[in-house]
Amino acid sequence: MSDDKNSNGVKRKLKTRHVSMISLGGSIGTGLFVTSGSTVSQAGPGGALVAYILMGLMVYFLMTSLGEMATNTPVSGSFAEYAGKYVDPALGFAMGWNYWFNWAITVAVDISTAALVMKFWMPNVPSWIFSGGVLILIFLINAASVGAFGEIEYWMSLIKVATIIIFLIVGVLTIFGIMGGGTAVGLSNFTYKQAPFVGGIPAMLSVFVVAGFSFQGTELVGITAGESDDPKHSVPKAISEVFWRIILFYILAIFVIAALIPYTSPNLLGSSASDIAISPFTLVFKRAGLAAAAGIMNAVILVSVISSANSGMYASTRMLYSMSDGDFAPRRFGKTNGRGVPFASLVITTVIALATFITSFAGPEIYLWLVAASGLTGFIAWVGIAISHFRFRRAFVKQGHSIDELSYHAKLFPIGPVLTLILCILIIVGQDLSAFSNFNWKEIGITYISVPLVLILYIFYKVKNHTKLIPLDQVDVKPVSKQTIDSEK
């Protein structure tokens, strides 16, 4: 094994700037550009801000938990490996397949969304042509090399970040009346009618769900750690930067939207990627007098969707690769080509994404269930990360180690894992409580199918392999250092 490979064989070609921007870009997508307006409509400006602030803090604590484990053991497909090493191999198996399935399905959703966005310019061209083109594009990017993936994802993420910065500048100038006709809006919309808090606690809880989906993708920093050229430096740096940028971008963006658009505006309701004209970003740009806002935002959202699909392909490929190394998947998926790309894992992930996309035409009902099956996967992954970190830290101390031995420390342990567990369980349970009151079993199944699927995977592996919860004094907490990597060559 050469010096630029990690302990499970993947080449370390992601630079620190790649890791930072990928983990940031993974959490900035249509959730911010399109659906963020609905949170202001549902809970009012105050309710939306409180929900995003609390969710942002939870995500930060979660990322520090992941960072502590990722700097100690930097591997691709980290979630499954950590769950398998620190908790129970059965949990690692369930977490890995659950996460792989989620991103493979998400790729199919993203390429479908890309086609809807392209309809803005070419409404008469069949959607499947656009979707097929995007799928081929992201396959080629991921097949080239991890360095090529990192560089392209870096620039796509940079476009999203630049758009938000411009939006914030334009928004603040409009609030003070410098742009948009010279009339200062100030904070009048924060006290308009029932604002700032609309709908009370139930409305705020519903916004937690939207905010949670918006922040999903930040955990990609754990995936990239395995291919970072300097994980002990790049991962902590990425976590710190991602926290501040997400808090600034999301909180300030919601603030600007809430200040300029009253929560009663019908344009904040029902936003979707197929109707870019009512994106809250578009509305703010138009209010500032920028007539070309719809076309510009459409291009940015297209980049955002392609970036999401690209990151999803990368994450699912590396997770499958990692599982083969841990005997959770067939060994053939653990082979890399001359460029260090796990090509077999990439191909099977692409095939599943393509098959899922085809079902949207051949069997819409099947497609609906497949998409639903991946709906709660991100939150389930967060729960797994929290449990794994709680067990890792307890085992580390129980085995006589000092926390000072860790190169990166999770903040305010055990607040992170505990807060993550509480909020994620609340979000998972609260997805669609009305379905239970009406006993709508189909709706319940579509909403919560992710949960029984994970349980089935967990029970299957546990029964088959007779696994048990690993005793704390037997948990493998030894760090993977450069010396360890060299000894495994």
From TrEMBL:
The chain crosses the membrane at residues 21-40, 46-63, 100-122, 128-149, 161-185, 197-215, 242-263, 288-309, 341-360, 366-387, 408-429, 441-461. GO terms for molecular function: amino acid transmembrane transporter activity. It is found in: Membrane. Its main location: membrane. It is a multi-pass membrane protein. It comes from the Bacteria. Pfam families: AA_permease. InterPro entries: AA-permease/SLC12A_dom, Amino_acid_permease_CS, APC_YAT. One of its GO terms (cellular component) is membrane. Residues 18-467 form the Amino acid permease/ SLC12A domain. Keywords: Amino-acid transport, Membrane, Transmembrane, Transmembrane helix, Transport. PANTHER family: AMINO ACID PERMEASE, GENERAL AMINO-ACID PERMEASE GAP1. This is Amino acid permease. It comes from Nicoliella spurrieriana.
